[in-house]
Amino acid sequence: MTAEPGATGGLVLGNEDKVHQQVLASFPLCDLTEEDLRQNPQFCKLLTSLAHYVDKTGLTNSLKKELETAQQKLLSQRRAWLQSESIHRALQEMIQDHRVRKHHAAVPPDENMFYETMEKCLLVAKCARKLDPSNTTKKDQPSILGLTPQDVMELMPSENNIQKMKQMLPGALEQHLKKKCFSLLSYYQPEWENDSESLKRCKLSHMSAQLVKDKKKVEALKEISREKRVLLQRQTQLYLSEMTACVQLLQSFILENRLTMQADLDRKKLDYFEGKCVLVMQKIEAEMVAIKLETYTPDSISTHKEIRKTLESELRACQVEKQSVESELSSFEILGKEFEALAEEYGKLREEIEMKKWALKEFTKYNS
User: Fold this and answer.
1) 75/179 Cα distance (integer angstroms)
2) HSE-up of 204 (CA within 13 Å, CB side)?
3) Helix H or strand E encompassing 289
4) FRET label pair with 301: which of 2, 117, 196, 319, CA 20 to 30 Å apart?
5) Which residues contact 60 (CB under 8 A, 6 or more apart)?
6) pLDDT tens digits, residue range 242-261?
7) What does the DSSP 8-state code read for residue 147?
8) pTM given for the model
9) How far is CA 291 from CA 265, 297, 356, in A?
10) Residue 84 contacts by C-beta under 8 Å, 6 or more apart in sequence?
11) In which band, very low, low, confident or very high, does the pLDDT at 281 lie, cut at 50, 70 and 90?
12) What residue segments make up the domains of the chain, in order of their start?
């Protein structure tokens, strides 16, 4: 997409950086840098023209209006659903609270009848809604146990109990909602918990506006955080590019100077290792001499000399005996295999004689 150098797309050179910043701000979701826009001026011009027709999320003006209309409809339907759902949950909470109170203390009969009637009405209405085929996507779906909404509606309490329940319901619901609102107010601002009821009502009337204000404040902080995050990403990319350039420059400098310095460095290392090797060898020789001096004292040397003389004389006598034995063996080998058999028999007789001598010696020793 690189364009010719002369094509600036009608941008003023002095305002080029400002235009690039505006384009990046108009399209924050695009992973672009100012360097990309400088290298592609036609693409920058296209984004500048598109900024008049789309917003930061990439939606056109007409589509944005349709989206806002759909969001308003969805918001109104959600509000209506939330209103009915909140009332239904409040009634369920009231029934649950009544059960807890009933378990711990005695409850007046009118109050007990009120909550039993309300619980039964809610249960019957829920069952009737489940059985109503108009609320399902499949019209031909079989009914549960063959029941119809009319069958379930017959289980409603008596009309008299229902009318009494309707009369008491607004006041009870108001008290329950007021209690929940006060609890919410105390959670939002714990220091307001000890205020009077009238002061709490006054503060509660302004709580929705305060919540909206806090929500806008949080959204503004999120937007600031997002802008800072985008700025940090751009600065990080710039920092990494600068660091990469510095590393490449340092590598080229090292490669250029390594060849001239390596020979001198190797020679110095060689001289150092040679001197260290000579020093280690001298140290080893000195240790060996010290060990010899500690081991071989003058007294031990004279003793070793006497031992050596004795061993040499014994060695000469053994050599003479060896020669005589070898000569006798050679003379015996001349006689052949017959003498070998006689020698074996003689050996066996000598062993038997020695064994009998040992047995006789032992026998005489024990008899004595």
Assistant:
1) 27
2) 19
3) helix 207-295
4) 319
5) 53, 54
6) 999 999 988 888 777 776 77
7) -
8) 0.42
9) 39, 11, 56
10) none
11) very high
12) 335-368
